[in-house]
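Ticket #4471: complex job returned nothing on first submit. Input attached below:
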Amino acid sequence: MMTDNKLSIKKKIFNWLEERFEIQELIDFAHKKSVPKFRETIWYYFGGIALLLFVVQVITGILLLMYYKGTEDSAFESVQFISTKINFGWLIRSVHSWSANLMVLAVIIHMFSVYFLKAFRKPRELTWYTGILLLFISLAFGFSGYLLPWNELAFFATKVGTDISGEVPLIGEFILKLLRGGEDVTGATLSRFFGMHVAIFPGIFIVLLTLHLLFIQRQGIAEPEEWKTMPKEERETIPFFPNFALRELLIWLIVINILAILAVFFPWELGVKADPFAPAPQGIKPEWYFLGMFQIFKFLPAQVLFINGELFGIMVFGLAGFLWILVPFWDSKSSSGRKNRILNYAGIFIIIFFMIFTTLGFILD
Amino acid sequence: MKLIKLFTPMFVVLLSSILFGQSEKVNDECANCHSQLGDELQKPADLYQNDLHSSLGFSCAVCHGGESKSDDMDVSMNKSKGFIGVPKRSIRYEVCIKCHADDKKMHQYGFKKSSNQYEKLKTSVHFRPSANNQGPIADCITCHGVHNIVRVTSPASPVYPTKIVNLCGSCHSNASYMKNYNPALPVDQVTKYRTSTHGIKNSKGDAVVAQCASCHGSHEIKKVNDSKSLVYPTNIPKVCSECHSDKNKMAVYKIPTDQYDSYIQSAHGIALLEKGDVSAPTCNDCHGNHGAVPPGVESISKVCGSCHSLNMELFEKSVHKKAFDDAKIPECETCHSNHKILPVSDDLIGVESNSTCVKCHESNDKGFAVAKHMRGKIEKLKANQIVAEKLLKEAAQKGMDVSDASFSLKDVRQKLIETRTTIHSFDQEKFDEVIKQGFEITKEAKTTGTQAIDNYYFRRKGLALSTLLVTLLVAGLYLYIKKIEKKRINQ
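Support reply: We reran it on our side without changes. The output follows.
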């Protein structure tokens, strides 16, 4: 009797929604969608993980915004207030910081998985480009958010980071002033970083993310390369709904658990308030995702082939980044769907290269 | 051997007198002529007869140039013979340093010491340009005189210890003259000096006691705020000890010689000499400088109170003031000593054998009970401070933010200082009032520390619970996925 009642309530709610939104159509559509099931399926979850962490960022970011004050005089104190006086403020701030880092990590893993699975090939070039832009904006989120507590480490790391951007030929000076809001890192820099972090970047991110998801929705999830030569009956898939969605949910729950453990056991430190007149402390380092690049810049000599060392670094990284972005164009074997081992080697080389320099960045002063 | 040692100086003196006696007999036509000119032109010739340089055979021409052997004025005062007449004020010291800055020449006349007077003078404040720009403020002649110069060891010398005070005072006691150089500089040094023990003895002809040059130096005198000055705070203890640590010198005056050794071990001496804190008191801060006297029993708290003003104020209103005065016991010195004032420890107060209170108080009197109470409270506050610090440290190590409480806890140190100052009132009520504030701070810090640690465990428990719930959800979901996938495969 109870079960009948429950069923009838469930049915009633469904009918109520169906009458207004025709949700049966959506359910049928979701049931029809499938995801390839093969040994690399695990990598398909990282896009979803990045999405979850972005949602966590938005929620915790909004909560922080209720108390954060983005001015030189009160930024540090407001973060201190959030961490010490607000109920669960420390947890929200810590979750925000950790999920930002995990999100960048998830986006990078997602990008490399798409690269190695050749999911960027025709017809998914635009999905790749929007994804690359989303990675850049995630990094920009990290860079701008790092300064917001206005502590010593963040202040000087921002100074070093923006200094490097000033070395870009022709437009370096302009970029430097645009980022800093003047010659030096000041309260003006904090204000514009705050503005970019909470308004401009989220706006752009949402638009790009919508496009990215629309493209996936329209074109379906990329299938593995070997499926092109495989008989249809041997291709194994799982329904997107509910099977893949529930698996994704399971991984989200694990990620949430990891995030909670990190936030509680390793609460994000606040450090000491930035003093623009104090000498830079030793061992200034950027966030881990910029550390490899930062370490390479440190190793570069002052002059390389009659070019300023930093400028040389920017040119090499710029060229490498440009080639990376344009991979759907120059991957000549994409049209024929053949294997391209050079692409794999290049990808592995880049991962090892950055892992070595990031490790060196952590170890060396 | 002893005979050789004894007769060598006698022989040198004899030989010198023979040599210089012969020189004296050299016919100096300048002196001959000037001694007959009368008035101002004769005066130098008359004075020079008793001058040390004259006795050493120096003719007028040595300083003034010209040909002293000729009685013809055109020859003797001829510029071609180097005659310069009266040397210009601005460069007259150059005449002196021709010999006095030359070790070789001076050694010929038996001066064994280095002839570095000019080198020292150049660094002196006196060698700066005078207000009228007529040369240095003071040069050789200003102090040593001219034409009647005698050895500095001669009581007739203007720089002899019993005369030098008036010599220095001729400028330094002249307000209208001194204001040309430093209007803020006092001009009462000589007056004060005459009231000091040094000054009184000096006036009575004691050439051993300190006079201006004993402390300020002679040729190398610097401004008192110059760190190289002999009377710069960090140099004063050494300068005073030059005499006051000299047992032979002090034996005459029957005063002890351990002041310097005691002072360098004292809190004041360590602060000044080891830490370079020039605000720490040195000899003259307690004894005075020009008017130096040992502080009397009745005035010692005023001397100490010039810096430790709160302690003095409290002491003067305390029951001890009258008791000490009646018993003619020196005030601060009784508990803290004089030259060897060691860094204060809480052991001074209380009823332990090493405390100062039990020197007078016995177990059945009120003072004994107050001392016991005060010491007990101080120890309790210190113990509370340690407990609070440990709690906050533990909380911080657990990653909790207790920076505000840690900062506030630093005030306990200040409260302990205030409490220790209040001891000088010897009033239990006043003491309790101050120390109570310290207890309140430690109580608050302990509460914050305990709460932070509790909060830490609450977070852990909360995390454990939420992790468990999520893990159960994950397990349930996993089983459900397995179930629906099995169902799908079967279909």
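The radius of gyration of chain B is 39 Å. Closing as resolved unless it happens again.
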